[in-house]
Give the backbone structure.
Amino acid sequence: MSIRPINADRIKEDVSGTDSMQSIHVLAKPIGPLCNLNCTYCFYLEKKALFAETENYRMSDRVLEAFVRKYICLSGMPEIPFAWQGGEPMLMGLDFFRKAVRLQNLYGHGKRITNALQTNGTLLTDEWCDFLAKNHFLVGLSLDGPEDIHNRYRVDGRGRGTFNAVLKGLKLMEKHGVEYNVLACVTRESAHRPLDVYHFFKEQGVKFIQFIPIVERMPDDGARARGLTLAEPPVMGAANPTDVTPWSVEPESYGDFLIGIFEEWVRTDVGEIFIMNFEWALLGWMGGEAAVCQFSRQCGRSVILEHDGGLYACDHFVYPQYLLGNILSSDPLRLVNSPEQIAFGKRKEAALPQYCRDCEVLFACRGECTKHRFATTLTNEPGLNYLCAGYKKFFRHINKYMKAMRQLLENNLPVSYIMDAVKGPLVIKLRP
């Protein structure tokens, strides 16, 4: 959720890496799947069916204290990044987050602690923004683009669009100086309007953006039996035949969407607007370990803390079979380093089809998220990422630009120089 701009120091830091066995990330969902909105494409609202015995889905003080204390005490983590998500975490109320900050201060012992909050923005007020600014929370705001694009799927419980309420929240954050970035979902329809989306964000003064492809499958018999409305994650190495939902982005359209925005960004906005999708790509071209799990060789180090204290293997795998344990009775680092979770993380690389292993852009893609690996190759080998064609198209397109940016960074030159280079032959003149 945290976004930092591209620069040489950042790239060198990410390339160097840390001890993976001592580094984990816990994403907390203090209100579970509860939300004040009813977004059509949300994959988490259905999780209510898995917590049928929960009365209010609210994280107790006992779970909160155990989480803060144990997460801070993990060895090998000089900086502790707390991330709060949902559902809609703001439904917990300000007092919950005030209590969380007090506990962080109590157990911090000199460590650097950061907080990130993902929200739909409709509940933001002056009081909330004052708290977020004073406590240096980084806010991830869900906003899909212009009003007609945003309101198509991001609706409240009565089916009404939420664009005006979200934009009001954005302006409140700017008024109070809250640090924020925008997370924009890319659907089947919005994928055909990349510049409409990008120009809207530029007009609003948004500087930090992440584009998230929406990919969900229709429920199979097993999912329906659990009361779920979407298919569970695919089984690696097996056929997973269910169709995608009508709102899922089409593979090549997603690639074209990224290319359309990249072509304008690389000519006019490098160093002014920071798009995480492009940062992640550059890190791959630099030879570093990915900053996010979907583009890592292996995964399993980012786990989910549910409202009841349960720790799950991944945000997309909050199902009973992927429950690792409970933070009230277990050490989260021990759970993440358990044989089961290590095997879960290694399957991301081990289950790659040969088609991926032979691909020239594997270093940038790494098969992407295992949730999306339900397609088959031309030779009917299972485990291909549904978005493969789009990613391959995008990565091939940006190859020459990424190489030039890498050369700039390696010579301690501003990456924004790329904008001058694309006006002529794509050659970087080095200092003598």
Notes: The chain has a mean pLDDT of 92. The two ends are 39 Å apart (CA to CA).
